[in-house]
Amino acid sequence: MRGIVHGKECMSIVVPVYNRPNLIVRCLDSLKAQTYRPLDIIVVDNGSSDDTLVNVEKWKNECIEDDFNVEILSEPKTGATYARQRGLQMVHTEKVMFFDSDDVMRSDCVASVMDLWHRYPKLDIVAWPVAIHHSGNVQLTHSIKGNLLERHLVHAILRTQGYAINTKFLNLVGGWRGEFPTWNDLETGARILLGNPNVKAIQDVLADVYHQRESITGECFSDKHGKWEKSLDGIDKSIAESGRRDTERLHNIITYRRAILAAHYAKEGHPELAKPLYKQALSNIPKKKRPLIRFAYHWTRLGMRGAFSIVGRFL
């Protein structure tokens, strides 16, 4: 791994992969197409059982150059967070990005990031919007402005494909934690933002995310019940340990998210999952704010969106 190559700072990009024999090549091609050099690419195979690893090794042999280094690692523990953390352990550059194997990085992404970092060298994070492609529709992620921590707790604005971070800062907040297999972007981003990083955002869309049926989130919430709750519990614990003055409001936002999750369970036909979680949400918030949680729950259960825009400022 290198820090400076030919007088320019190197960026590391960590890509976990599991059973994506063709999509991983498309992703890696988009990294190869970056206008910025030098780059260190770290691909972490997470126990693929198909031709994924063979294809990655073939691609490496065809693409490696002096200013485009490629490392291939293996992580036997199942889960993207374990694979990302394994890759992070091999990063020796000051700045690192994480990317997913089924997505595409636009060619000017790294160049735009490094240009902003060159102008503001004390930044901890450079972030950007992402285009999400799903069933023929394209949706842009929420803008990175205002109270970033609150916006992240609601909208998960620090997506894996949407920011680069100072490696030392990420290690200081604990990196990626394997015990959170779902909503790991949400959990990791919360710890990052609780660390009060210096953040600037690029306004241009710099990555394209393609929803896959086999993605970590699956097709419905009920399929991974209990795991979503674990991530929310982890965030709640991090908030409590932060010593911030606004912990009550932040806890209330997590309670709101529990109510929304319960509503999704109910909407998917699983009242046995929805009722105890909804009851927990109501018991975790001051009595005077319970009507807000009730509204958010029933609003979402009816298939409506955007409950936070209605109740958020009152939490």
In terms of structural class, how would the helical and strand content be classed? alpha/beta
Proportion in β-strands: 15-25%
Number of helices: 12
State the end-to-end CA separation: 46 Å
Total number of beta strands: 13
Could you state the order of secondary-structure elements as H and E? Answer: EEEHEHEHEEHEEEHEHHEEHHHHH
* Largest sheet data: 7 strands, mixed
- Helical amount: 40-55%
Which strands sit side by side, in order, in the main sheet? Answer: 5-4-3-6-11-8-12
Global outline: globular
Spans of at least 5 consecutive residues with low confidence = none
Which radius of gyration do the C-alpha atoms yield? 20 Å
Mean pLDDT figure: 94
Describe it for me?
With 315 residues, the protein is α/β, with parallel strands linked by helices. The protein has twelve helices and 13 strands. It has helices at 23-32, 52-63, 80-88, 109-119, 148-155, 167-172, 184-194, 227-242, 247-267, 271-283, 290-301, 307-311; strands at 4-5, 8-9, 11-17, 39-45, 68-74, 95-98, 104-105, 125-127, 130-134, 137-140, 163-166, 199-201, 207-210. The strands form three sheets. A seven-stranded mixed sheet has the order 5-4-3-6-11-8-12, with helices on both faces. It has a four-stranded mixed sheet with strand order 7-13-9-10. It has a two-stranded antiparallel sheet with strand order 1-2. Strand 3, helix 1 (23-32) and strand 4 (39-45) form a beta-alpha-beta unit. Helix 1 (23-32) runs parallel beside helix 2, helix 5 runs antiparallel to helix 7 and helix 9 (247-267) runs parallel beside helix 11 (290-301). It starts with a strand and ends with a helix. The mean pLDDT is 94.
